[in-house]
Design goal:
The complex is a heterodimer. Chain A is an all-alpha fold. Chain A has a domain of about 210 residues: MetI-like fold. Chain A has 14 helices and no strands. By secondary structure, chain B is an alpha/beta fold. Chain B folds into two domains: about 190 residues, Periplasmic binding protein-like II (D-Maltodextrin-Binding Protein, domain 2), CATH 3.40.190; about 170 residues, D-Maltodextrin-Binding Protein, domain 2 (3-Layer(aba) Sandwich), CATH 3.40.190. In chain B, helix 2 runs antiparallel to helix 15, helix 9 runs parallel beside helix 11 and helix 18 runs antiparallel to helix 19. The radius of gyration of chain B is 24 Å and the shape is globular. The N and C termini of chain B lie far apart (about 80 Å). Chains A and B meet through loops of A and helix 3 and helix 18 of B.
Chain lengths: ~325, ~450
Amino acid sequence: MPDTPADRVAAATPVRVARKIKGLSDRAIAWIFVAPTIFLLLAINIFPLIWTINLSFTNFKANSPNREIKNVGLRNYERILTDSDIWLNMQATAHFLFWTIFFQVLIGFTLAYLINKKFKGNDLWTTIIVLPMMLSPAVVGNFWKFLYQPQIGLFNYIVAFFTGKEPSSFEMLGSVDLAPWSIVIVDTWMWTPFVMLICLAGLRSIPDYIYEAAEVDRASKLRQFFTITIPMVLPFLMLAVLFRGIENFKMFDLVVQLTGGGPGSTTELTSINLKREAFEKWRTGYASAYAIILFVTVFGLASIYVKALNKVKER
Amino acid sequence: MKTLKLASVSAFSLAAAAASSAQAEDLTLCWAAWDPANALVELSKEFEAQSGHNMSFEFIPWPNFADRMLNELNSGGKLCDLLIGDSQWIGGGAENGHYVKLNDFFDAEGISMSDFADATVYAYSTWPKGTPNYYALPAMGDANGWFYRKDWFEREDIRAAFKDATGRELGEPKTQKELLEIAQFFQGREIDGNTVYGASIFTERGSEGITMGITSALYPWGFKYENTPGSYDMEGAVNSPEAVEALEFYKEFYETATPPGYTNSYMGESLDAFKSGQVAMAMNWFAFFPGLYADPNTGGDKIDFFVNPPQNQAGSTLGGQGISVVAYSDKQDAALEYIKWFAQPDVQAKWWELGGYSAHNSVLNDPGFKDSAPFAGDFLEAMGSVQDFWQEPAYAELLLAMQKRMHDYVVADQGTAKEALDKLVEDWTEVFEDEGKL
C-alpha cells in the first residue's frame, strides 16, 4: 500500500472524525438530512402521480364511497381519445396558447426594445407596464367582464368609436366568434409585461462593445438588429415562451371568471373541462386518465422544447 | 332556616344550570346565502330560547353552494350538523350515507309526512323516489315563476301599442307563446327615455342555470325524462317532438326577447335586470318574491307575479330544499331536536310570515293563505304542477351534460334542437350505463 503525502492527508481528513460522531458515517448523516425532503417529494409528488395512474384504470368516483371500484382497463383512455368534445376543448386550448404566445412575444419584445432605449421616464413606464401582471387573475377577469359588457362596457364603446358600430350590437363574451379573442386580449394585456421583463433582461445582457464593433464595421441598424439583437435575445425569448406556454396550458381562473367556458363550450379549455369531470361530475377515474394524458402531452412538448432551447443557447 | 332555604334554592339553580349547559350544543346549519336564509336566522332564535342550544349558520353563495357542500359531505366533514340541501342531492345523500334516515325519528316523535304537501315530500324527502324512506323534512318549498312591471303593463299608451301590435289586451300571459309575444313586444321599446327589453331568462352555463330555465319551457310542453318512470328509457321521451319544439321556443326567446349580453345569466342577473328597470318581465324562484315585493323602486304597486304559463299542460320547474341531519355530525340528537321543533305547525306559520316558503299543509291549506301575499296564490298553483330534474346519485353528471348541450344549442347556436336532445340522450345513457342502471 503506497504511503504518499496525499494518502497521509486523506487519512487525517475529517472523514474519520465524522465517522466518530455517534457512530454515524458521512453517508448516513447525509441521508438523515436529505431523507425528509425525499420523503416529502415522494409523498406529495410521486405517490399522487402513481396513485392517479392507478385510478385512471378504474371507474372510481370520489363522491360514491359505497360503490364497488372496478378495473376498466383502458376504457377511460379510449373514451377520452375518441370523444369529439374533448378534441374541441384541445382545439380551443391550442388556439388560446398559440395566439396569446404570439401576441405576448411580439408586443412584449417590442415594448422591451422601446423601454431599453434610454429616455426620460423609462423607469416610470416600466412600472406602469408591469402593473397588470401584479393583479389577481380573478380580479382581472371580473374587471374585464365589466369592460366587455355590451350595454355599459368601455371596451365596446372604444371599438364603436373607431368602427362606427353600435356598442350593444356585438358581444365579446357572448359571441362564439369573439369570445375566444376576448380571452386572448385579456391574457395578452395581463402577461405581456412578463415577456417584456424577460426580453429586457436579455437586451440589457448584450454588451455595448458588440454594437460598437458593428458600428465600426458600418453595419446598418437593421443588420445589427437581425444579427446581434435577435440571436442574443432568442434564448430569453424562448424561455419566456416556455413559461407562458406551460402557464397558459393550465389556464383556469381567468377564463372561468370571464366566460365560464362559454358560450356553449367555445372557450372551455382542457383545464376547465378536467375540473368539471373531476370535481363537478366526480368521475375520478376518468378524470385521472384525462390528467395523465394532459401531463404526458405537456411533459413531452416541454422536453422537446427544452432540448431546442439548449441547442440555441449552445450556439 | 332562611339561610338553609336560600342555600337549597341556590344549589338547585346551580344544578339546573349545570344540567342545561351539559345538554346545550352548538349546532351549525348550512344553507345557501339568500333572503330565506336570513328569515331562518330570525326564526331560529325561538329554537335557541326554547332548547338552550346555540345556532350557528354557514351560508354559501349560490354559485359555490353545491361545490362547497358536496365537497363537505364527500369528505365526511363535520362542519354542518343540519343541511338544507338541494332536492337533486337527496339520492346521493341517501345512497352515499351522508344523510341520516329519519323514519324512526318521525315515528317516535309523531311527525307525519302527510302533514306536508305531497309534491314537496316526494321531491325533497324520499329516496328511492316515492318510497316511504325519508332523508329530509320539507323545509323550503319553491318553484320557478315570473314577475313583471305592473306599472308598465297598466300604462294606457303601452296597452294601446300592444293591442295595435297583437290584437290582444296586455295582461299576464296565459300560455308560453303569449309570454314570448309580450316579451318581444317590449324588446327594444323606449319607456321613459330608456330602452327596455322583454325578459330576463336563465342562460347560465356553469352550475344549473340554463337547465332550470329551459325546463320551465320543456315541462309545459309535456317533457318527460323517461317513457316509463324508473326504466331509464329516454329515447323518444327526452328528444320527443314536443321537447324539440320547447327547446326551439326557448332559443327564440333568448334571441329575440332578452337584453344584450345575457349569455350567462341566472338568479342574480335576473334580479339585477329587473330592479334596474331593464326588463318588463323576469323569471326567478319564488323564494326571491318577498324581497322583490319589498323593493322600494320596483316593488309594491309596480310589480306583480304569475305562475310559469302552461302550453300543452301546466308545468313549473321545482326549486326548494329539505332539511337533513348530516350523518357525520356528533350532535345528531340536538339536530333532530331542531327538526322536531321546525316541523311544528305554529313554527311553520311563522316561517311563512318571515319570508320562508312553508310546505306544511296547515299553512298552505289555510283559507287566508292565498291572500297572505301577492304571490301566495301563484306559489300554490306552481307547487301543484312542479317537476324536478333527475335526483339520481349521479345527478351532477346528468346536470352538467344538460348544461353543455343546452348552452351549445341556445347560446352558442350550434346544431339543431333535435341534435342537442339526441346528444343529451347519448350522454345520459352513458351515465346510466356507468351506474349499472342500463
